[in-house]
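Lab notebook, bench 4. The sequencing result for the construct came back, and we need a structural model before the next group meeting so we can plan mutations. Quick request posted to the team channel:

Model the 3D structure of this chain.
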Amino acid sequence: MADTPSFVNVEMLDGGAIWHVTFGGSKGNILDSAMVAELTAVFHEAAAARDLKAIVLEGKGHHFSFGASVLEHLPGHEARMLRGFHDMFRALFGASVVTIAAVRGACLGGGLELAAACHRVYATAEAQLGQPEVVLGVFAPVASLLLSERIGRAHAEDLLLSGRTIDGASALKVGLVDGVGNDPLAHALEYAREMLLDHSASSLRYAVRASRHGLTERFRAEIRELERMYLDELMKTADAVEGLKAFLEKRKPAWTNA
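Done. Here's the predicted structure in C-alpha cell form:
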C-alpha cells in the first residue's frame, strides 16, 4: 500500500498472497465513516492485487468491533453513514478474494455484519457476537440479508429479533464461526496458508466469484430496498430516534410504539 492509513493497517505476508488487515484504534474499534472509507479503499485495492489470495481481518486491541457509530445513525447523518457502510460490502464482494475474520472480544452490530460477510470466521470461546440494533429501535440491513445465508433463517432471526449476544462457543454450534481457540489470528493464517496458498490466485478469484455469484447479485439488489426502508420509513418513526438517543444518553428508551 502507498501510505499507511490512519485507522487501517495492511501487512503483506507470504509475498503478498495474504494481507493481514487490522482496523480500529478507538475504544471498541467503532466503524465510523472515516474507518469505513479506509476499509472500502483497501477492498478496492485488493481487487487489483494480482498475487493476493486472502485477506485476514482483525480489530486492533481487545475487540473486533462494537459496531457502526451510533452517533452517525442520528437524523442528518444516517443517509451518508448507511450508504458508505453498504459501499464497503459492495467493495468486499467485488474484490473476489477469500476473506477471513479473526474475532476477539466484542463483535457486535456492524462488526458482526463485517465478520459474517467473510468466508471464514475464527473466534475465541469468550468472544461476544450479536446484532443489538433492535434494542436501539433500528434494524441491521446487511445482517438481515447475510446472516440467514450463513446460519439459516431460524438462528438468524433469533439474533436479529432478540438483539441478544452469544459467546464464541455458542456461535460455533450454530455455524456463525468456523473455529474457536485462544489465538484466532493464528487459526485464520493457518487456514489461509494450508488451504489457499497452493492455488492460483487468478483461479481462486474465479472460484470466489462463482461460489458467491447468487449471493452477490441478491445483496446488490436487495440492499438498496432495505436501505430505502431504513431511511424513508424506519427513521421517520419516533421510536427509532428515541432508541438511538437513549443509547447515547445512557438511559432506558421510552417507547411510544410509533
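The chain is about 50% helix and 15% strand.
Will bring this to the meeting.
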